[in-house]
UniProtKB/TrEMBL annotation:
Gene3D superfamilies: Electron Transport, Fmn-binding Protein, Chain A. The keyword Aminoacyl-tRNA synthetase does not apply. Belongs to the non-flavoprotein flavin reductase family. It comes from Lederbergia ruris. Signal peptide: none annotated. This is Flavin reductase like domain-containing protein. InterPro entries: Flavin_Rdtase-like_dom (IPR002563), NADH-dep_flavin_reductase (IPR050268), Split_barrel_FMN-bd (IPR012349). Residues 14-157 form the Flavin reductase like domain. SMART domains: Flavin_Reduct (SM00903). Keywords: Oxidoreductase.
Length: 164
């Protein structure tokens, strides 16, 4: 086996790849809101509008997210690093510690997000220790706020010099 193929090298490379930060939300059968921080998010298709994200099979909310018929992708704004950290924590009521509301289609939406894509589940794909969830976008909210970025285990925003 090639010695360069190891978890540490993989994490180094992936950690050096800047990503946006999202909180994916849904509700369980009792309509209790659930959410988790996700940076494995990408656009898939324009026709139809499709996005994807992946969830670790060990996450406690895995059964709910993989069986739901809808979810929301909350693209965090640059001033929402605290929300990112909140939705990583375990065994707490995350929604009692942030501002949010139910959307018209009864999905929990994080207040102040840079954007929100509400989706109906299009397809799920088993992929190693994760499952990829593909959603068809059914509603879009854009606030034109700067997004929160994650790079080398740090969070921040795109610097003003980038726009010049």
């Amino acid at each position: 086996m090639d010695k360069s193929l190891n978890t540490a090298n993989y994490l180094d490379v992936m950690g050096n790849y800047p990503t946006g930060v999202t909180v994916v939300t849904t509700t369980n059968d009792q309509k209790v809101p659930l959410g988790l921080t996700v940076n494995s998010f990408a656009s898939v298709s324009l026709d139809p509008l499709l996005v994807l994200w992946s969830i670790d099979k060990k996450v406690s909310s895995y059964p709910v997210f993989t069986q739901t018929d809808r979810f929301a992708i909350n693209v965090l704004a640059s001033d929402q690093a605290d929300i990112c950290s909140l939705f990583v924590k375990k065994n707490i009521d995350r929604f009692s510690q942030c501002e949010w509301e139910f959307s018209k289609i009864n999905l929990p939406i994080i207040s102040g997000a840079a954007g929100v894509l509400q989706c109906k589940t299009f397809k799920t794909i088993e992929a190693g220790d994760h499952t990829i969830l593909i959603g068809e976008v059914v509603d879009i909210l854009s606030t034109n706020k700067k997004p929160l970025l994650y790079h080398q285990r740090k969070m921040g925003e795109i610097p003003e010099s980038f726009y010049r």
